[in-house]
Each structure stands twice: as C-alpha cells, then as structure tokens.
Amino acid sequence: MGLSEEEGGKYWDKEAKSYNEEVEKHRNRYYELVECIIDLMNPKKTDVIMEIGAGTGAVSLLLAPKVKKIIAVDISKEMLRIAKEKAAKAGVDNIEFVRGTFHKPNIAEKVDIIVTIDSLHCTTNGNYKKRAIEIMHGYLKNEGKVFLEDEMIVYDQKILKRRVDQIVRYLVKLTRKSDKEFRDVLFEERPNIHDLKEFFDESMSYYIKGMAKTGHHLKLEDLVRYFEDSGFEVKETKRASSTNGIIYARKTKNA
Prior knowledge:
This is Methyltransferase domain-containing protein. Keywords: Methyltransferase, Transferase. By secondary structure, the protein is an alpha/beta fold. It has 2 domains: 5-153 and 217-251, Vaccinia Virus protein VP39 (Rossmann fold), CATH 3.40.50.150; 157-213. The chain is built from 9 helices and 7 strands. It has helices spanning 5-25, 27-41, 58-63, 77-90, 126-139, 157-177, 180-187, 193-213, 220-229; strands at 48-52, 69-74, 95-99, 111-117, 140-151, 232-239, 244-251. It has a 7-stranded mixed sheet, sandwiched between helices.
C-alpha cells in the first residue's frame, strides 16, 4: 500500500469495520499465527509484548493470557476502539492500547518481545522499514525478540517462473479433460487457454516486477539484512505462503 503515516491513519479508520469482519471470518489464521509465535518466542508469564499494527486485536487478545502485559499499538483510532471493545467483552484486562506507529510507538518502557503481523508492508518504502527495525531494536530489552509476519517477496524469480509455467501446463491439460460442470465452477464460463496463459503471465510479471519496484514490498533477504544491520541475529525465516514470510530475530547488541 505504501501510505504515509497520516494517510494510513485516515485510511484504516475508514476500513476498520470491514477489516474486523474479515478478521473474524479468518480467525483460524490468527490461531495458527499465535501458535507459531508461541513456538518460536516461548513467551513467559512475566514478559511484556508490544504488537505494532495491532489492528482490531486478534493477535493481542490471543497472546494476552500467556504474558504479563500486551501493549497494542496501532495507527488507527477506530481500530483501537474496536479492539478495546473486544477485550472488554472477552474479559481481558492486561492489554494497554496505544495510538502510535512503527517510528513513534509512543510507549515509555522497553519490552521483551515485539510482534508485527501484516503491517510493515503498508509503510512507504525500504528506508522507512529499515528505520522501523532500528527503532524496534531500541524498544527491546537485552536479548529481546521480534516476530514479523508480512507480505514480502519470498520466491526466487527463476523458481517462481518455473513454478508458474508448471501450473499453466497443468491447467491446460486439466481443462482439456474437464467436463462442463467443472469448467463452469472453476472459470464461470468455458475457459480460453490463451486467456488463462496470459493471466498467469501477467500475474507473475506483477509479482516479480511490480512488487519489487514498489518500495513497500521487499525481498525476504533484504529484510533479513535490515535486521542484521540493526543489531539483530536472525534466528529463523519461513515462507508462510506464496506472498508472505516470517522472520524471527533476537537483539544481540546495541545498534
């Protein structure tokens, strides 16, 4: 998306209600993410976690019973309002809600763990992201940890092209053998193989070229380098999906 902080606040205020509806539809995803966070971070009951880009609180609410306190930071007042309502309804009282950003979290204490889900890619460019990671370092206690899950370019371009070509060849073969009912369900009309090939080529071109050229989508290896340059040891990386990756990093020194 690549919005400025001011633009981002206004945008997410407008989108908060529909965003929360989507979150509720896909609750299983957040349960899975929290399981991954717990497995990698091993949070203690004495820990304080800051979630940056907390949205309407899906992750913070699930993590809250595991730790002493959650500080849920978000740029949107409306997102935070919904998150507070959900916390009150669930009887969760150890979440502090703060309006802030990656560059200005607006908290007065250092934390044990920082979590950020699907948020850093919304910021403007690589320089903003690099500075955001440096600021995370400053808000962590010694040997504090970061869990980042976000949109990023996780595929090598040559591998991606080869896989897309394999998919196209498979679909060409599949649709030639499919009955009309299958075609109608899958494509809503009789598929044109040439149109299908063009669609995949355009999609691949966007992923490889479009995402890379926008400053707000970075390669996994670029983000890893930003962490390492900022005084972190990257302990683990994972490909969460075709467009999302996970980075687990630990603070090792003063930047």
